[in-house]
Design brief:
89 residues
Length: 89
Amino acid sequence: MWLEIMASSQPLKGIELIDCAKANAQQGIATAADLCGYGSDLNTFERELKKACQDIGVEVKELSDLITAQQMMQQGMGIEVAPDTPSEL
């Protein structure tokens, strides 16, 4: 399956910025900033992302704060909880 990812031609703001940053957080800040329309201006990207999150009442200290547990599990970054043996629960 071919997936084409397009960077925004203008820096995103508000909820659009949050959605884009969250969707690309696992690829790192440089990729997320670029795809959200900030190019290599990481400082402005971080500042605008924090402001957008504050505007909706969410505290974000860094981009990785946007990665959900579900996203981590899909990427194999979670932990497995299972009995020691098939007969032991």
